[in-house]
Structure formats: structure tokens, C-alpha cells
Specification:
- This protein folds into 6 domains: about 5-105, Rossmann fold, CATH 3.40.50; about 105-130 and about 205-330, D-amino Acid Aminotransferase, Chain A, domain 1; about 130-200, Dna Ligase, domain 1; about 335-455, D-amino Acid Aminotransferase, Chain A, domain 1, CATH 3.30.470; about 460-480 and about 490-580, 2-Layer Sandwich (Glycoprotein, Type 4 Pilin); about 595-660, RNA polymerase II/Efflux pump adaptor protein, barrel-sandwich hybrid domain (OB fold (Dihydrolipoamide Acetyltransferase, E2P), Beta Barrel).
- It is globular.
- The protein has 17 helices and 39 strands.
- The strands form 9 sheets. An 8-stranded antiparallel β-sheet has the order 14-13-10-11-12-15-22-20.
- It is α+β, with helices and mostly antiparallel strands.
- It binds adenosine-5'-diphosphate.
């Protein structure tokens, strides 16, 4: 067994690999960039080596630096995690030449599976179902149209070198096929430097279901069940689960056996994933094989009880697989949510910054959190803005969802925006709960994008009760601070008026049985809570049901967070509640005449000048953010009266760029 392993990665996956190494008594070496000096993975490892500047191309992707780091520290093997150098055959070869083991497959498996045309041909030869289509390179648009007519519309045009959802186009007719061919070809050339495109049938109402395989170098290979990853946003996974609510035992076995056949066809070693697309009749077709550990591997670990990283390390060291297919039992249900630093209400724009507050739900047999961040740490613009993977386990799907909902309620993140309300909305969505998934789920259910109104509204009773209770607790404390005014004893009311969204609720709260009795609107609640004043998380037992709220206080104003919803409440003594109606309402300023920056970024160009007339759709300005250029266009015809920000300025969210007449 290896004594020391270097992890050529960062973030949650580096931390996750370190954990398994520790358990196995293996020393760990982290590599880190300028931006990651203080990162969790660098803190957790036994040793750490600086490998360069913040940009990954100057650090995590520089093979020589990683190999030098192995030599400096005496690491005998490298775990690549996912992304970065994990599917780079040249890297494996260089390691091999330096006498360092690569914890992953052999280079030939990476190369043959890294190309969609080659892998599809290999899959066909191994008896794996592939999407009907043409596995040759398409010569030109006419050729694409001819083949599409043979396959039958709709079709999908795909870049052979594609990945990450790039270089893919759906076509429903001949015109779209011509256009799609040109676009896929251009995108493939500019993104991958390889413009080969092929065409296959577009599977309608597709589900993405993948099989985890694990193989050793002695010819043994097992499949560890499937993961369903149909909840995707622009071909990127958001929620993954295992098993799939759609598969029956026969289909699972058929898919598993085909996945193993493919792995064996390339003498596969280590962990790999064979991705399939499944249609509504449960026909399944091979998409691609990922020759690395995947982001969503924890769901498989939770239902198989296996540690995939440990198995990868063991087989890389030459061990035989310790399990056979008969040993693999799937128990219960696991669900994974990817918690991202992003603004779900602004088209999921990444949100970078410092994690001013970071408390994750405690781990238990039902909850696992894989993260690479810590409170006070930074989510930087250089890397993927994933904060954590929140994984839950239950004896069935329903229970896994309930655990996920509670864990999301208890996830306290401040300082950057995050997608917890979106994840909550997905968990509460009836169609999601019924398991009627498809890769188009998000696009179909949120056609206008995700908006605050899409956050499910629960019965506000609990929020009103919590606001009154929290307030009462603060008032009790204030009353107990004695000696402030001689001879005056402060009375705490039992009756309060809670204002939520302009509606007044009269709430009665009184201590009872070591807890509280609360009633309002003819509803009675028996409440227990052990909350300490000032804690951001408020746990309360309402009629024997545990409910979690996050609470922020500003005087008599409370902001409560629960199940993804944000509720503002004002708690007033009844005697003064009616004065609230007399308070002047503070209206938000009218900003409709301004062009505001929708994101933080660099104002690259102001495309219009003062006094200019613009038509709807005309380009107004260009902002660069997260290495992407975003064009801001006029929403309606108008006249530019004033330019307020100049090209070259760095903008914050909602900063004005220009004003219209
Ligand atoms: P990438 O390598 O870019 O991730 P994949 O081949 O894995 O590309 O496909 C990514 C996603 O695109 C799939 O999960 C599925 O949602 C969709 N997709 C790919 N091929 C098809 C197809 N033939 N029909 C329908 N959807 C497809």
C-alpha cells in the first residue's frame, strides 16, 4: 500500500480524498495556488506544496509542477479528483515515466473514452446499446441533412471532442439541422480545437442515468448500481440520486452488465462511470464514459456502504477488488444537492466573496456534507463556485427528501449568495417528489427562469409563531435585566401583533409546561424550544414536530428563513400595532429609467452616447464577468440622457450605467 499520496486537486474533492487517506493511515500532500493559501484542503493535508498562481492554467493544470511536488515530498501516487488533470492521458504517461502511480485508469482507456465517436464505436462493438445514428464524421451541412432524414427528426448534432454540454445542438427539421451543424462545428473548433461533429437521434423526455463501475487490474469489474442525474440546468447536474426512481431490477441489471462489458473492452481499471440516456419506454442508450471519480459519487457510497476513493487507491496499488458482484447490495435512498455560490434569482450568476458566516448541518447517518470551504474563507472567481455537496440518506426516497429539506433549513451561509432556496423549491416540487424527472425538468418547470414567486409558500403559521416567540424571548431577557430603573418592574406581554406582508396577526404566547402555549386565529400550538438568544438557527418543536428556522433580528424586525422562503415579520405590542397604519410607507426609488449592472464585473464598453436614440434590442453596453462577455440590450425604444459609468469601470450589482430620458 502507498505510504504517501499527493492530491492534484482543490476544494471539496481534495478534502474528501484526504479523509479516506487518513482513515487508511496514508500520508497526504496537498497542492495549492496563490488563491488557496488558506484553503481547507491545504490545511487538512499533512504536507502542502505551492504550485503557482491563482489561475488553474498556472497551477493545478501544470503537470511538471505537480510531478515536482511528488518528487519533493516523496509521494508515490497521485489522486487527480475530478476536473483538472483527471482525464489527461499525457499526465498519466508523465507520471508513469517518473515512476509515480496514477490513481485512475490507464492512459489508453482515457483516450479512447475521451472521444465521443471512438467511444461510441467501441461501445457498439462491445454490445452496448447506442443512440441510433451515424458514428462517422459529418462532412458538411448537406451530409448532416441526408443522415438526419434517415434517422428521423428530432436529431442531435454533437461535437466528438465535446464535454460540459458544449458543442451540442438539437434540430427538429432540415433548416435547424443545417444551422445546428454549423453552430456545433464552430463551437467545437473554438472550444476543443477539433471540429468533428456527428449526428444521432434526439431522445425525447430523456432521463440521464449512469452506472458506476469499479475495476481492478486483474480483470475483475463490478457495477455499483445507478445514479439518476436528470435534474440539470443547461446540461449541468444539480441534483443526483441513487437509485433511480425510474429503473426496475431488470433494466438495472441490463445496464450494469453492459457498463461492465464496455469497461472490460478497454481493460478498464479504477472507478468509472458509464452514462446512459433513457427514454420513456426505459430503452437505454450509451452516451459516454467518464474515466474518473464523479462529483456525485457520494450517493453511490451511501447506498452501497463502499468508499470509492479507498477502492481506487487499493486497485491502483495492485490489490484485487475486495468485493464481487454478489456482494453489492443497494440499501435505502441517497440524494445529493450541489450547493453553489450563485444568485438563483439572477439566472444563477456566480456570487463570489467571503463566507462571513458558514455553518453546515451536522453530519449523521442521514446527512453527509462534502465541502472545501470554511467560515472566513473565500469563494474566489478562479474556480468552480461550488460550496458543498449536501448528501442525505433515508430508507426510501421520501425519507431522503425529508432529510434534505431539514438539512437545507439548517445550512447557514452568509457573505455570498447561494442556491439553497432553489434546492428547497426543487425538493418541494410535486413533480420532483413523484419522481417524474427528465433532463428538461428545470427548463419546463421554470420557463421564465427561477423567480422568488417560485419558492413554495408554506402555511405561514409557523413563521408567525416563531417571530412572536423569538420576540418574546428577547423581551423576557430585557425584563430580567434588573436595576435599570429603580422601582420599575418591566412587564412582558403575552399578546403580540405580528405583521407579515401587511397582514396583522394577533398572537398569544405564554409559558407553559417548560415550553410555551401559542394560539392565534383559533389555532393552538404546544411549543418547546431550547434556543439560545442570538443563535442564527432556531429549532422549535411545534406539536411534537421539529421545525428549523434561520432568524435575523433588527430591533422589532425579524427576517426568517425556512424551506427556501424569506419572511419578514414585525412584532408589535397590541397597544401600538394600530399606529403602524399611520407610518408613512417607504417606497423604493424608481429605477426604471436606469440601466443597472445585473452583475459585478468590468464595464468593457459603452456602446451608445448621450442623446442617442436607441431601439429595443440595441446593444447598450458590454460587461465582462467570470471571463464571459455579457451584452446588455435596450428593453424598449428610448433616448439615452446621461452616461453615468465609463468603460473600464468595475461595477457592482445594480450600479447605474446610464439613464434614459
Ligand atoms: P457532455 O460530454 O458535454 O456532458 P453528454 O453526451 O454527456 O455531453 O450529454 C450531456 C447531456 O445532454 C445529457 O445528460 C442529456 O441531457 C443530453 N443529451 C445528450 N445526448 C442526447 C440525445 N441523443 N438525446 C437527448 N438528450 C441528449
Amino acid at each position: 500500500m502507498f505510504k504517501k499520496i499527493l492530491i492534484a486537486n482543490r476544494g471539496e474533492i481534495a478534502c474528501r480524498v484526504i479523509k479516506s487517506c487518513r482513515r487508511l493511515g496514508i500520508q497526504t500532500v496537498a497542492v495549492y495556488s496563490d488563491a488557496d493559501r488558506d484553503a481547507l484542503h491545504a490545511r487538512m493535508a499533512d504536507e502542502k506544496v505551492h504550485v503557482g498562481a491563482a489561475a488553474s492554467a498556472e497551477s493545478y493544470l501544470v503537470m511538471e509542477r505537480i510531478i515536482d511536488a511528488c518528487k519533493e515530498t516523496g509521494a508515490e501516487a497521485v489522486h487527480p479528483g475530478y476536473g483538472f488533470l483527471s482525464e489527461n492521458a499525457a499526465f498519466c504517461q508523465k507520471l508513469e515515466a517518473a515512476g509515480i502511480a496514477f490513481i485512475g485508469p490507464a492512459p489508453h482507456a482515457i483516450t479512447s473514452m475521451g472521444d465521443k465517436i471512438t467511444s461510441k464505436k467501441l461501445a457498439e462493438a462491445a454490445g452496448v446499446n447506442t443512440v441510433p445514428g451515424h458514428t462517422g464524421v459529418i462532412e458538411d451541412a448537406d451530409h448532416a441533412v441526408k443522415i438526419a432524414a434517415e434517422i428521423g427528426y428530432p436529431v442531435m448534432l454533437k461535437a466528438s471532442a465535446g464535454g460540459g454540454g458544449k458543442g451540442m445542438r438539437i434540430a427538429w427539421d432540415e433548416a435547424e439541422c443545417r444551422d445546428g451543424f454549423e453552430r456545433a462545428t464552430n463551437e467545437a473548433r473554438s472550444s476543443f480545437g477539433d471540429d468533428r461533429v456527428f449526428v444521432e437521434k434526439y431522445i425525447e423526455e430523456p432521463r440521464h442515468i449512469e452506472i458506476q463501475v469499479m475495476a481492478d487490474s486483474h480483470g475483475n469489474c463490478v457495477y455499483l448500481g445507478e445514479r439518476e442525474c436528470s435534474i440539470q440546468r443547461r446540461h449541468q447536474k444539480v441534483i443526483e440520486e441513487a437509485p433511480s426512481p425510474f429503473l426496475d431490477e431488470a433494466t438495472r441489471q441490463a445496464m450494469g452488465e453492459q457498463a461492465v462489458a464496455l469497461a472490460k473492452a478497454v481493460q478498464y481499471r479504477s472507478a468509472g462511470t458509464v452514462e446512459f440516456i433513457v427514454d420513456k419506454e426505459r430503452n437505454f442508450y450509451f452516451l459516454e464514459m467518464n474515466t474518473r471519480l464523479q462529483v456525485e459519487h457520494p450517493v453511490t457510497e451511501l447506498i452501497t456502504g463502499l468508499d470509492l476513493v479507498e477502492l481506487m487507491i487499493r486497485v491502483a496499488a495492485g490489490d484485487k477488488l475486495p468485493v464481487t458482484q454478489d456482494d453489492i447490495k443497494l440499501t435505502g435512498w441517497a440524494m445529493e444537492s450541489r450547493v453553489y455560490a450563485e444568485d438563483p434569482f439572477r439566472d444563477f450568476m456566480p456570487s463570489i466573496g467571503r463566507l462571513v458566516r458558514y455553518h453546515q448541518p451536522p453530519e449523521s447517518p442521514h446527512v453527509r456534507v462534502d465541502t472545501g470551504v470554511h467560515e472566513g474563507g473565500e469563494v474566489s472567481m478562479y474556480y468552480d463556485p461550488m460550496i458543498a455537496k449536501l448528501v442525505t440518506w433515508g430508507k426510501d426516497r421520501n425519507e431522503a427528501i425529508l432529510h434534505m429539506q431539514e438539512a437545507l433549513d439548517r445550512y447557514h451561509i452568509r457573505g455570498v449568495l447561494h442556491n439553497i432556496s432553489f434546492l428547497n423549491a426543487l425538493m418541494a416540487h410535486p413533480r420532483f417528489q413523484e419522481g417524474r424527472l427528465s433532463t428538461n425538468f428545470i427548463a419546463e418547470e421554470y420557463p421564465e427562469g427561477f423567480r422568488p414567486a417560485d419558492v413554495p409558500r408554506e402555511d405561514p403559521a409557523h413563521a408567525i409563531l416563531v417571530a412572536a416567540l423569538v420576540h418574546r424571548r428577547y423581551m423576557d431577557r430585557a425584563a430580567n435585566i434588573s436595576g435599570q430603573v429603580a422601582g420599575y418592574e418591566r412587564q412582558v406581554h403575552d399578546d403580540w401583533t405580528v405583521l407579515v406582508e401587511g397582514v396583522a396577526h394577533h398572537v398569544h404566547v405564554r409559558p407553559e409546561n417548560g415550553g410555551y402555549h401559542v394560539d392565534y386565529d383559533d389555532r393552538q400550538f404546544a411549543v418547546q424550544c431550547d434556543w439560545q438568544l442570538g443563535q442564527p438557527l432556531f429549532r422549535v418543536e411545534i406539536d411534537d414536530k421539529t421545525v428549523w428556522f434561520q432568524v435575523e433580528r433588527d430591533g422589532i424586525r425579524y427576517r426568517l428563513f425556512h424551506r427556501g422562503a424569506e419572511i419578514d415579520a414585525l412584532v408589535l405590542a397590541p397597544g401600538i400595532a394600530h399606529f403602524q397604519d399611520l407610518m408613512p410607507e417607504k417606497l423604493p426609488p424608481d429605477l426604471s429609467k436606469f440601466l443597472l449592472s445585473p452583475m459585478p464585473g468590468l464595464l468593457v464598453k459603452v456602446s451608445v452616447s448621450e442623446g442617442q436614440e436607441v431601439k429595443a434590442g440595441e446593444e447598450l453596453a458590454v460587461i465582462e464577468a467570470m471571463k464571459m462577455e455579457n451584452v446588455l440590450r435596450a428593453q424598449q425604444d428610448g433616448v439615452v440622457s446621461k452616461i453615468v459609468a465609463d468603460a473600464g469601470a468595475s461595477l457592482s450589482v445594480d450600479q447605474a450605467i446610464m439613464e434614459f430620458a
